User: Which sequence fits this backbone?
C-alpha cells in the first residue's frame, strides 16, 4: 500500500512565523501535490511537483512556496504565516498523468495561525 | 474555466440508497473520480469512470455518467452508518493540466440509524 505521511496532524503558529509542512511518500511516485481544504470550497491546489527540483503553481500559490530536493519529500513553506492561511493542508502523490492514476492522500495537517 | 459543483449535504436513513450528484464543466475530462473522506483522515479513492463509459458498478457503488449534460452521480445501495463521510467528485482535464485533479466542494453524507 502507498503510504503518504505528513509530519504533523495539528500545528499552531503565530502570524508572521515561517512554517514548514512536510510530506514523505514511500512509493517512488513522480508527482506530489499540496492542497488546502476549506469548508464549502473543497480542495484547492497550491503547488505540485512532477520531478525533483521541479515545481508548478496551482490555483492559489500566493503566500506559499515549495521545495522538492528528494523524490520522496515535498515541503510546503509559508514564508510569513497569516490568519487566512488557517486551514487543513493535504499532501497527495501520484504516478503518471492524473487521468490514468489516482491520487493517494496523507491524513492532513490542520494549521491554525493566531 | 474548469469547475466542479456538488450539493453540500445529504441525509439518508440506514438501509436506504444514497445518490450524490456532481456537475463538471470540462468536456475534455478523460476520467472522473469519487473520493471519500472520513473524519480526521485524508481522501481515499472510491471509484472512477472513464469518459467513454455510461455506468460502472462496484459492489454497493454505482457510478452514472451523462457526458452530454456533464453530470456524474454516485449511488450507494443499502447505505450504512459507516458510509457517513464527505464525498468529493473530481475531474482530470486533458492538456497542460493533466497532472492535476479539479475537485468539487464535497458532499457531506449523514446516515441516520
Assistant:
Amino acid at each position: 500500500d502507498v503510504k503518504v505521511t505528513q509530519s504533523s496532524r495539528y500545528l499552531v503558529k503565530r502570524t508572521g512565523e515561517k512554517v514548514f509542512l512536510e510530506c514523505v511518500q514511500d512509493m517512488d511516485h513522480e508527482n506530489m501535490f499540496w492542497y488546502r481544504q476549506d469548508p464549502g470550497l473543497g480542495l484547492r491546489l497550491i503547488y505540485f511537483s512532477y520531478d525533483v527540483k521541479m515545481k508548478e503553481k496551482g490555483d492559489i500559490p500566493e503566500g506559499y512556496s515549495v521545495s522538492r530536493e528528494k523524490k520522496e519529500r515535498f515541503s510546503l513553506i509559508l514564508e510569513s504565516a497569516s490568519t487566512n492561511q488557517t486551514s487543513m493542508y493535504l499532501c497527495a502523490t501520484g504516478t503518471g498523468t492524473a487521468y490514468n492514476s489516482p491520487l493517494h492522500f496523507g491524513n492532513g495537517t490542520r494549521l491554525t495561525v493566531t | 474555466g474548469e469547475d466542479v459543483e456538488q450539493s453540500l449535504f445529504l441525509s439518508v436513513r440506514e438501509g436506504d440508497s444514497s445518490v450524490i450528484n456532481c456537475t463538471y464543466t470540462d468536456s475534455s475530462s478523460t476520467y472522473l473520480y469519487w473520493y471519500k473522506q472520513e473524519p480526521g483522515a485524508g481522501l481515499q479513492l472510491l471509484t472512477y469512470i472513464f469518459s467513454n463509459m455510461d455506468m460502472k458498478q462496484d459492489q454497493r457503488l454505482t457510478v452514472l455518467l451523462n457526458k452530454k449534460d456533464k453530470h456524474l452521480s454516485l449511488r450507494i445501495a443499502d447505505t450504512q452508518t459507516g458510509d457517513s463521510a464527505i464525498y468529493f467528485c473530481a475531474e482530470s482535464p486533458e492538456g497542460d493540466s493533466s497532472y492535476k485533479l479539479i475537485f468539487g466542494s464535497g458532499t457531506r453524507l449523514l446516515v441516520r440509524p
